[in-house]
Design brief:
Layout (H helix, E strand, L loop, with lengths): L9 H17 L6 H7 L7 H4 L3 H23 L6 H18 L1 H10 L5 H27 L8 H13 L1 H4 L8 H15 L6
Helix pairs in contact: 1-2, 1-4, 1-6, 4-5, 4-6, 4-7, 5-7, 5-8, 5-10, 7-8, 8-10
């Protein structure tokens, strides 16, 4: 299931999907509104019925991806009962998400600079929400004496950045599945916090 499958109405959904493909291939600046409408099977002016501008279409895509990422990681720790299990679950969920939704995530990472200031402020809030979940768990592990991390904020930033970067290099259909990537990155993250045997 694609992240935009719930976008309504269907014409707006096709515009979002078409824009993601074009932004991934050509970049935000290289895809015209006419191109996006054509990719959606719509007339050139039809895009403006659903999105006032190409920039607002990009902002919608970026928010869809960030909100979905937050849902994925916030649900990940429901059955985890130790700091190590919670960090493992968070990292697995975020790395897997960026592999499973590689195209959309890569567009987001590549095109953040094209967002309007107000849209960037909202997205920054979403990013802080995700990072906060990780930071809280790393800090809890340090406080419990099961993690060693001299710089909780810096370590958290490195872990989250590592997961986000998956969308840059991952290619669907390769040797590793999104689940393989999630498992490897979860293992690496626990090494980064020097998780001690429980």
């Amino acid at each position: 299931m694609e992240l935009w499958d719930t976008v309504e109405p269907p014409a707006a959904r096709r515009l979002v999907a078409g824009a993601v493909e074009l932004f991934a291939e050509r970049g935000f600046g290289g895809a015209s509104t006419r191109d996006i409408a054509a990719a959606a099977g719509l007339s050139p002016g039809a895009m403006y019925v659903h999105f006032p501008s190409k920039a607002e279409l990009l902002a919608r895509i970026v928010l869809i991806v960030h909100e979905a990422a937050y849902r994925a990681v916030s649900a990940a720790t429901a059955k985890a009962d130790t700091p190590a299990a919670r960090v493992r679950a968070l990292v697995y969920a975020l790395a897997r998400f960026h592999a499973a939704h590689q195209r959309g995530c890569r567009v987001v990472q590549n095109e953040l600079g094209a967002l309007a200031p107000d849209d960037w402020a909202r997205v920054r809030g979403e990013r802080r929400r995700v990072e906060g979940l990780f930071r809280d768990e790393v800090a809890a592990g340090v406080a419990a004496g099961v993690f060693e991390a001299a710089d909780v904020a810096g370590t958290t930033r490195a872990i989250v950045s590592m997961c986000v970067d998956v969308s840059r290099w991952y290619r669907p259909g390769g040797a590793d599945s999104p689940e393989d990537v999630g498992a490897l990155y979860a293992h690496l993250a626990l090494r980064m916090v020097r998780a001690l045997p429980c």
